[in-house]
Specification:
This protein is an alpha/beta fold and 506 residues long. It contains 15 helices and 19 strands. The C terminus is likely disordered.
């Protein structure tokens, strides 16, 4: 219940406000009236409660009320009607008034970046303020309205308008990948990339210099979310990745030379949509929670992913060297791609429509990225492949990649070799590490500095469990007495000679 003092203050304010209304209205109030007469729509971002505005000629585009785009639009509208400019103080008053109205009316929308989902429909923002692509399980069409709101960012470019009877396979000529399995994995990536509310696999474009891996990833971005800039530089720290995720649909990084453990964890959270908390502004203590499922990709010369959880969320595409006599000028490639792009986009939306209308419903034998696998398998069927065959390919790919991570891990290879003639081994963490160090130094010339400390040993072994399990080695940790213990054992009870990647021990 409100206090008497509060009621008195409200009454005094209303009396004063009514008196002022009898006087000539301010410029700011007249501008607000003008905007309302234009049938603008005011609403709040459902996630951050920030005020936005949409104009009737672009009803599916959301502009932050405090942003530069709205400021420029406001200046243009007032000049066209009053042939005058807007001062900073008037602009601030208009923003404050509209913000108050938006917060009062409490109309909310979820804001989308490039691709939106509404019930069983997907909407793709062409970004020309005229067209949006509507995709359902029955087909796709070009529309001028949509029941969703898109948040635009300065780097985003206008997409070409797709055409019917497209050809997604035509994109393969712009990817220097010769392995048929990897070609299929790449083609099925595109339609699933346009389903915004599920985790989607990261893609790693791997190859030596001269393999056109950067150009390939750039073309992938141009197909899904064209921008005015180039691929992004790797962020200085994992937190910067989440800052980029706020404005990019495709987080595609060029020339990533290594992935630390923290960066690997951040990559996984970007793929699956982990929440990141940060201050709203540097000038206040408000904490906002941001959760972004983004498309993640990067180029690298070597296979640099080691942690098993990221390998189970990634597709590795290997680019092959292009001889000098086979190279084309980049300008020629860009012209050819631009000419074919409407057909390729049409093929992408054909595959997407088929995938969402014929999603694989079976849940048996699905890999870790289950939602991705179901839609990608449907896309493979659209491309003339077997659903079961594709699911087998995807599972085998993830298994192979996990073993690649194991081969690049010194600790993993030491454990395999150490257990080659033992049915099992267990001990305190410090004892296990000491045994591994002594074995590695004696038989492989590896020093203790190449292996994790006893404080991190359990964590590093746990990261290798999926790959070790595939090799037949089980791992358990348990408490006994006053300390933590680790048990390593062959799951079938029989020791066997482990296959060791010798390059690890050179």
């Amino acid at each position: 219940m409100k206090s008497d003092k509060y009621q008195q203050a409200v009454t005094a304010f209303l009396d004063k406000d009514n008196a002022e209304k009898k006087q000539k209205r301010s410029v700011a109030n007249r501008i607000v009236d003008l905007l309302l007469d234009l049938d603008i729509e005011l609403f709040l971002d459902i996630e951050q409660s920030e005020p936005y505005i949409s104009f009737p000629h672009e009803p599916f585009v959301a502009h932050p009320i405090g942003g530069t785009v709205f400021r420029n639009k406001l200046s243009a509208i007032y000049w066209e009607t009053a042939k005058n400019g807007i001062s900073e103080s008037v602009h601030k008053q208009v923003v404050a008034t509209l913000s108050g109205k938006a917060h009062s009316e409490k109309i909310t929308y979820k804001l989308w970046n490039r691709v939106a989902q509404h019930e069983n429909e997907i909407y793709y923002d062409i970004a020309d303020n005229l067209n949006v692509v509507k995709i359902t399980g029955l087909g796709w069409s070009i529309e001028q309205t949509a029941p969703v709101k898109f948040r635009r960012y300065p780097h985003q470019a206008i997409q070409v308008v797709p055409v019917k009877q497209g050809n997604l396979r035509a994109f393969l000529k712009y990817l220097n990948i010769r392995n048929p399995d990897e070609q299929l994995l790449a083609l099925t990536y595109f339609p699933v990339a346009c389903i915004p509310d599920i985790p989607r696999c990261a893609i790693a474009c791997i190859g030596e210099q001269g393999t056109a891996k950067t150009g390939g990833l750039r073309k992938i971005q141009e197909l899904i979310d064209p921008t005015t800039g180039d691929l992004l530089h790797p962020p200085q720290k994992p937190g910067d990745l989440f800052a980029l995720a706020a404005g990019y649909y495709c987080l595609y990084l060029d020339n990533v030379s290594h992935v630390t453990s923290d960066e690997s964890d951040a990559f996984c959270r970007i793929v699956t949509g982990g929440t990141n908390g940060q201050r709203k502004l540097y000038t206040d203590n408000d904490i906002v929670q941001a959760s972004h499922k983004r498309l993640l990709g990067f180029t690298s010369i070597n296979q640099i992913i080691q942690k098993q959880d990221l390998l189970e969320r990634s597709i590795l595409l290997h680019f092959e060297y292009i001889p000098d006599e086979s190279r084309k000028p980049e300008e020629q490639i860009n012209q050819e791609f631009l000419a074919e792009k409407p057909l390729i986009m049409g093929g992408l939306f054909d595959a997407l429509s088929f995938a969402i209308g014929n999603k694989v419903t079976s849940t048996s034998g699905l890999p870790r990225m289950a939602d991705y696998a179901q839609y990608a398998a449907s896309a493979a069927k659209y491309l003339g492949e077997s659903e079961d065959g594709f699911l087998g390919l995807l599972s085998a790919t993830f298994d192979k990649q996990k073993q690649t991570g194991l081969q690049s891990s010194v600790l993993g290879q030491v454990i395999l070799d150490f257990m080659a003639n033992k049915s099992e081994y267990s001990g305190r963490i410090t004892e296990v590490r000491q045994e591994l160090v002594e074995y590695a130094e004696r038989s492989k010339g590896i020093t203790q500095y190449d292996l994790p400390s006893h404080l991190k040993l359990t964590q590093k072994i746990n990261e290798l469990i999926p790959a070790l399990r595939q090799k037949g080695i089980g791992v358990t940790t348990f408490e006994k007495g006053s300390g933590s213990h680790i048990r390593l054992f062959w799951t079938d009870g029989q020791p066997k000679m482990a296959v060791v990647a010798e390059e690890v021990f050179k």
